[in-house]
Amino acid sequence: MNRMKRNLRVVRVLIDMRLQNLMMFRLSFFGPFFVDSCVFLIQLCVFQAVYSNVDRIGTWGKGQMILYIGTFSMINALNMVLYFFGINNIPDKIKNGDMDLYLTKPVSPLLRLTFERINPGSVPLLLLSGVIIAYGIKEGGIKVTPFLVLGYVFWVAVMTVLYYLVEVLIRSLSFFILSSGNAVILEEAGLTLCMQLPGIVFYGFYKVIFYMILPYGIMATLPVQFLITELTAGGAVWGIVVAVAFTLLTAFVWKQGIRHYNSASS
C-alpha cells in the first residue's frame, strides 16, 4: 500500500512537471490539439470512404463497425495521451546511454518513462472518439444499460493496458539487439490493418497472429462484442488470459533487459 501511494505521488509529480514544461512554450502545448484533431478527421474521412459502399464486415453492420472504429480510436487516443511519447523513446535512451539516469533514481525507471511525457495535445482525440462511439451506438440501435457501460469501460481499460504492454515489450527488445526498428514496423503494420478490420474477420493463421502474437485483433473487438452482447464466456476468458500473459512476459523481458543493459558511457 505504501509503495502504491509513493508511485501515485511520483506519477502526479511527473504530470505536473510535464504540464509546467509545456505551458512554458504555449505553441508546444496548444499546437498538438490542432494537429491531432486534423489527423483524426482525415482518418475518419478515409474510413467513411472505405465503408460507404459496404453493408457488412463479417457479421457486423454499419453501426457495429462505426462503434469499432470509435473504440479503437479511443484506445489509441488514451495511448497517445498517457504513455506513448514516453515509452517510444526507450530504444534511443538505451542506445545513447540516457537509461543510466533512470536506473540511478529511486523510482521505477519504467514508471518514470511511462508518465514523464504525457501529451495533452491528444485530448481532442478522446472527445472525438467519444462522439464516434455515441454515433455507432445510435446507428446500431444498441440499448445501453449501466451494466453494459461499466463492462465496456472495463474492457477498454484492459485493452488499453494490453496496448501499453505490447508497446513496452517491442521496445524492450533494444536491450538485446542493436535496433528494434523492424519490430516497430511490424507493430505499425499490424495496427494499421486492425484499425480497419475487426478481429471477427480473422481465421486460421491470421487469428493466431492477431489474437496471440500481436493481439491488436482483440483490442477493440472485445469491448464492442461486450457492448452488443456478442462476447462469449470463452472470448472474455481469452481476453483476460492474453492480458495476464503479456503482463508476465513484458515484466520478465523488461527485468532481463535491465540486467542485460550496459551503459553506453561505460
UniProtKB/TrEMBL annotation:
Source taxon at top rank: Bacteria
Pfam families, per the entry: ABC2_membrane_6 (PF06182)
InterPro entries in the cross-refs: ABC-2_transporter-like (IPR010390)
Keyword Methyltransferase set for record: no
Keywords assigned: Membrane, Transmembrane, Transmembrane helix
Transmembrane parts of this sequence: 27-50, 65-85, 118-137, 149-170, 208-229, 235-254
PANTHER family, per database record: INTEGRAL MEMBRANE TRANSPORT PROTEIN, SLR0610 PROTEIN-RELATED
Protein name: ABC transporter permease
Lineage of producing organism: Bacteria, Bacillati, Bacillota, Clostridia, Lachnospirales
